[in-house]
Amino acid sequence: MRLSAAVIALLSTSATALSVFRENSVSASDELDVPGKSPLKFCDAAADRKDDIITIEEVILTPNPPEAGQTLTIEASGIVKEAIVEGAYVNLQVKYGYIRLINTSADLCKEIKNVELECPIEKGRISITKNVDLPNEIPPGKYTVEADVYNKGDKHITCLTATVTFGRKTLGFFDDL
What we know:
mainly beta; 9 strands; 3 helices; globular
């Protein structure tokens, strides 16, 4: 969807970690959970999101949880309340355990091209589907990703976070021992 598309584009290009977590399927169950089936959560309570430019209706990851070496399909939908224009940006942070891997600000309009969108993103309903090929080798551990997104003029678009844990993959011949 709107921001999700941008965030997912960023996450899939600069933080494969978000896509390769080994955790149980996640469904919306509290006010911070993004509706759908994904590890995504909102950073802020619903009352604090009322002025966000985007309303995320649903994000579905298939498979959920994502698996190393598989294609992850991301389906997202939502409503853009005002146009997202050149000058929009995302503050992105990725941690591996307590170690910060990425802490950067990126041009949102450049990144959303990864999901075949471009600025301006006009007001209205939006849906995206994106396939991401996940690498076979993802270091096991806990990854936390936060993307705080702003339009030109620092108007808040949305803030999403996800925590996922990847386990060790075995080669199969030790499974029966």
